[in-house]
DNA sequence: CGGCCGACCGATCGATCGATCGGTTTTGTC
DNA sequence: GACAAAACCGATCGATCGATCGGTCGGCCG
């Protein structure tokens, strides 16, 4: 389910890499740190992945695939009205960036560290998420429920707002995830109204 | 003046470092690349800066100081009404992230690469910018012109919106800087209305 | 039991890293 | 034009980088 964040769902090696990448960044992380975090020797790590770049690519691909499936799932079981559908997508995005904070953070900040075609593949997945938001906004305009003169910029702003959550949210912070979601859902609504 | 982006204003060495950092990131950049970009030998580069970390810190400090002075300047010669003052700050932020795109991008993304107290000093400057936005929002609430129930979150959202511009804007893109500014000023207004 | 394969490791590779050395050239001042 | 200071450089340092090597181990299949 798109609201379920209990199960692991990530290769233990990638889960370990995620923690180190989140703390030090891709280029700031050494193969030896990745191996140690995974509880393996350097050679043992290379048995599972061909290179450091391979680890990053497998990680962000796994994370973005998870996000895409959740966004699609959030739309599938949504009430048919545009207001609900827009809220579902935004709520899904907020939940993901709250509950998979480090994964979402690494995926969004290490775009620059992806080499060659890997970067384009990532951007394509990123664009699909943003397109899902824009689709709901345009549908809302057609239905007369939204009135933003700039649906494309509004969609990017909503996405930026949600992605940004992963940059500042702290689990022990002032507000609960539910409250953060409520407030930013309201901010997103104002962007498209 | 806070709208003037003609003059250089940056140490040539830092200007060269800016280009390389923007393209490859701090940890992805070598001292030799920095020296080559500055037209110096490695030893010649070390005559001006004590370390690679020193170069990054001098760069982001210079950039953030510039931004802070512009924000203050934008408020100083503003009409006294809250609507104008809010618009001034947001316009100043948007211009900075449009016309100093690479500098703003590096300053915002390489926060993680700052070591020790340098990071805290940067965060303090960053918070001062966001506080300037929040101050205008609160003033607008007091004056009855704004109505957002979450001024703190709205201020962060406005800042995120402006900073994000540096991540996607391309000078040869579809819209002119003036048009980008106009549209995002409208989005910012909706966030606080 | 014998053979094999995936999982894993210690040791080490060549390359490159950030940084430093002693020494040379350029520049500004009187 | 003497001279000190600033600017700059070739050569090289020890450390560490990503990656690879030959080999060990344990469990599964016949």
Automatic annotation (TrEMBL), chains A, B:
Q: Does the keyword Cell inner membrane apply?
A: no
Query: Mind listing where the DNA-binding region sits, in residue ranges?
Result: 30-49
Spans traversing the lipid bilayer? none
**Which Pfam families has this protein been placed in?**
TetR_C_24, TetR_N
PANTHER family the record matches: HTH-TYPE TRANSCRIPTIONAL REGULATOR RUTR, TRANSCRIPTIONAL REPRESSOR MCE3R
- This one is known as TetR/AcrR family transcriptional regulator
- PROSITE patterns in the cross-refs: HTH_TETR_2
Keywords of the record: DNA-binding
User: From which domain of life does this come?
Assistant: Bacteria
Instruction: Write out the GO MF terms.
Output: DNA-binding transcription factor activity; transcription cis-regulatory region binding
Gene3D superfamilies from the UniProt entry? Tetracycline Repressor, domain 2
All residue ranges annotated as the HTH tetR-type domain in the record:
7-67
């Amino acid at each position: 389910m798109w609201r379920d964040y209990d199960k692991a769902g990530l290769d233990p090696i990638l889960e370990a890499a995620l923690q180190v990448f989140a703390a030090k960044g891709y280029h700031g992380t050494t193969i030896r740190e990745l191996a140690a975090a995974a509880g393996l020797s350097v050679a043992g790590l290379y048995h599972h992945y061909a290179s450091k770049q391979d680890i990053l690519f497998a990680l962000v691909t796994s994370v973005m695939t998870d996000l895409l499936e959740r966004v699609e799932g959030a739309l599938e079981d949504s009430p048919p009205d545009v207001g609900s559908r827009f809220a579902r997508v935004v709520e899904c995005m907020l939940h993901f960036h709250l509950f998979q904070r480090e994964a979402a953070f690494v995926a969004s900040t290490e775009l620059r560290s992806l080499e060659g075609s890997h970067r384009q593949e990532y951007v394509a997945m990123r664009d699909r998420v943003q397109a899902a938001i824009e689709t709901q906004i345009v549908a809302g305009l057609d239905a007369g429920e939204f009135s933003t003169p700039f649906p494309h910029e509004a969609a990017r702003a909503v996405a930026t707002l949600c992605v940004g959550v992963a940059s500042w949210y702290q689990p022990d912070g002032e507000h609960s995830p539910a409250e953060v979601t409520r407030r930013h859902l309201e901010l997103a609504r104002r962007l498209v109204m």
